[in-house]
Backbone:
């Protein structure tokens, strides 16, 4: 009679910590972020046609991680005005952004930050709710 033995393994490290480099939180500290990462490619979002026809302005404020590859990851919407009108276009645009590490960041340390993308029709007018905290 034969017996079967099943072995299983887990992929955690002995101390239970991940091998990934944890990002530094630069939320609210753009000057420090710019000492570590600089935008090498930005992308202007496409204005949704329906919003343009209706003269709707607004913004989308994101929280995300600049990965060690210089790409936006773990993208989360913090604020969207009005509602979800611009989220799809703004998210697509943010995914096209690229960052390069500065000389101080030769280890390509990931960073948590925020970014607001604004949408306005001529004449350029910011929606009041989008101006709060806009630095």
Residues:
């Amino acid at each position: 009679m034969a017996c079967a033995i099943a072995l299983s393994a887990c992929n955690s490290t002995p101390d239970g910590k991940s091998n990934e480099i944890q990002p530094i939180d630069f939320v609210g500290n753009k000057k420090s972020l710019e000492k570590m990462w600089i935008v090498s490619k930005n992308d202007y979002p496409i204005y949704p046609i329906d919003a343009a026809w209706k003269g709707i302005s607004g913004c989308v404020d994101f929280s995300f991680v600049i990965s060690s590859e210089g790409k936006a990851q773990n993208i989360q919407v913090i604020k969207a005005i009005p509602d979800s009108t611009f989220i799809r276009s703004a998210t697509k645009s943010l995914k096209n952004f690229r960052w390069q590490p500065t000389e101080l960041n030769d280890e390509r340390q990931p960073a948590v930050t925020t970014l607001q993308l604004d949408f306005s029709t001529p004449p350029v007018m910011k929606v009041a709710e989008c101006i709060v905290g806009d630095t």
Summary: Residues 58 and 84 are 10 Å apart (CA to CA). The helical segments are 30-34, 49-54, 87-96, 128-131. The chain has one domain: 24-131.
